[in-house]
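Data deposition worksheet. Section B asks for the primary sequence of the deposited chain exactly as it was used as input, without tags or linkers unless they were present during the calculation. Section C holds the resulting structure in token form. Section D is free text for depositor observations; keep each observation to a single sentence. Incomplete worksheets are returned to the depositor.
Section A, Depositor: J.P.
Section B:
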Amino acid sequence: MVWMRVALCVLLLGLGSACGTDPDGKETRPHVLLVLVDTLRFDRVGAYGADRPTTPNIDLVANSGVRFERAYSPAPWTKPAAASILTGLYPSTHGATSVPARISDEATTLAEILSAEGYATLGVVSGSNVSSVYGFDRGFDHWDESQIRGGEAFTSLQVTDRALAFAREAIRSGRPFFLFVHYFDPHYIYRHHPKVGFSPERAGRLDGSEGIHELRRIGRDASAEEIEFLRARYDEEIRVTDATFGRLMEGLEALGVAQQNLILVITADHGEEILERGWLGHTRTLYEELLRVPLIVRAPGRVRPGHVVAQPVSTVALTPTILDWLGLEAPDDSLQAESLAALAAGGQEDPDAQVLGEVDFETGGPAQTVRNAFKKALIGARFKLIRDDPTGRYELYDLRADPKEQRDLAADEPARVRALVPVLEQRLARIRGPEGPVRSVELDEEQREALRRLGYLGED
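Section C:
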């Protein structure tokens, strides 16, 4: 691929020129591409150790850019996580924490900031939880949500085509662009892609036609063969999404967007639990398979190519990081995470760094298919503390010795729990939003049914 050859040149540039030039030799402002892959677990990405060739195009960016080994989403489902990426605020502050909630009017989005700075702001999304209904279109000159078609449809190709069309118009206008691209396909439903060939046609009781509520019931006694079938189908969805990302990069290169003048961020909103704990989906826990996400950046002239950052970081930091790379500041001091720019450039890591995770998810329906969750987590270099808010119960995990969080140490190490609890409380106190009702929208039956099919609402 042409863009792969260009990537090698970007790698060789190292920390060279930070900006591109136009045909007259004048310095130009960089374009910004933010790619959000819905429901992409970190460990299903090749650069993070996936056991299948799921992401060759994303891996190429990791090789020539910077990989954050321990990046965390602040929430285990799309709406609060994506809103945090685009506002630089934790969910407790931006308010988009429940099924009907929308982003607070008090929050300023990255698109609003960049639009005010003269950027063409373009958004193409394919999941209902990042729709204009919830305020995600704020600050975007052009917003396309025509590909919100549910889990049954394969939409990544159309998303890529629309993103390239938007980029083409921005380039013609002579303005730098901020392009937000949201790929939905790894989210359940896991469609079969025979040309990828990771999975058989069926396994045990499963053939891919089951609804998520049925799968959650089956999951209580699923066989190893059935679990592997689901994981292979999920990996197939990741592989075809990665292919369309590669097509996006080729298309931008064909439009004359030089990679040395493109800031690129690739991440996910959350991961996926595939029956590790007898459940399929997300929203209900704060374990690694849901909160830990890939985060790969490439910003020639601003980062150290090929560098890996081991320190825990939060995707809440992406808005301040992008602004830092562009030499811009937020209109106020409300951002709740520090820029990652210094770390990406090879700066010293903080061994005491900690990030937060939170979920306040409440929905209707029977408890066996959808479960409420109200939890908070404090994640450090080694230990993770999780609190269940309704019961006040704590869990403690040694992520170094027990990365899959199979052994709760809270009862064995009460002194460590007591030491971490006030730290968690202090961090939470800093991110609590203003008092008052959360702004919500009234969902119609069609919207509710779509959320029900995706597993966010229970069966009637």
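Section D:
The chain has one domain: 2-13+31-356.
DSSP finds 13 helices and 19 strands in the chain.
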